[in-house]
Amino acid sequence: MNTFKTMNLRHVLAVLCAAAAWTLPGSAWAQADEARARKIANGVCAMCHGDQGESTSEIFPRLAGQHTDYIVKQLKAFKSGERKSTAMAEMVAKLTEDEMIALGRYYEKMPAQRENVKDTGLAAVGAYVYQHGNKFSGVPACVSCHGPDGHGASNLPRLAGQLSGYLFTQLKQFNKRERTNDNVVMHTVAEKMTELEMAAVAEYLSTK
Ligand code: HEC
Ligand code: HEC
Predict the structure, then answer these.
(1) What is the CATH number of domain 120-206?
(2) Which ligand ends up closest to the CA of 168?
(3) From ligand 2's centre to the CA of 6, what distance in Å?
């Protein structure tokens, strides 16, 4: 008799809980996700990427304003080892997919940064390469994928305002096929780029 009552009570509770979950407004879930992301970001990621995703070291990319889908793709690739980084492999080891998505949304909402122009001539060369590529060597125009203002979209990363040293390093890695999670696309782009073109486009983009 007692067992029967307990079972019934459990059943009723289960139904009530399910009903509560269904009626919990979407924004409450979103708030919980954001709080979780903020906790991880402040506790772990901020040390290298900055409190506002604004990193000030050329080694650590800026995350503010970066697209959620792109961030999630990279975090998964760091976890699987497809994109190699000793620093990041450790950071993502325990992250779940939901946490990756929450972190992506958290950083995408933050206002993007921009650098001051350091070398006007170099930035002008970069602007040309970005808009037109180099038809003599076969470098395609970056604008065709990353957009007129370097804002990218979804899986195409935002490049505008990213630190020039980081951009330069990534282009070199794509060139040597060391960053291997891009399905060859960026390797084909960077394969024919000279270091001058890489430095120029990096200088231009960091100031956008
Ligand atoms: C100890 C320093 C360090 C910490 C802490 C750290 N990162 Fe990173 N992160 C890096 C480095 C270094 C890179 C660049 C790797 C490379 O050169 O390919 C990077 C790259 C990334 C990228 C790729 C960005 C791009 O533009 O492709 C994302 C996304 C990222 N980190 C997110 C995070 C998140 C989220 C956390 C917290 C869970 C975190 N990182 C914690 C050092 C760190
Ligand atoms: C055909 C489309 C295409 C073109 C053209 C293209 N890109 Fe990309 N680029 C991509 C994609 C897709 C990625 C994301 C790769 C990944 O998922 O890891 C990317 C990634 C990058 C990254 C890495 C950003 C980061 O945060 O780590 C840099 C830097 C970059 N591109 C620079 C350039 C430059 C400079 C040019 C022009 C010379 C260019 N791209 C042209 C598609 C393109």
Answers:
(1) 1.10.760.10
(2) 2
(3) 60
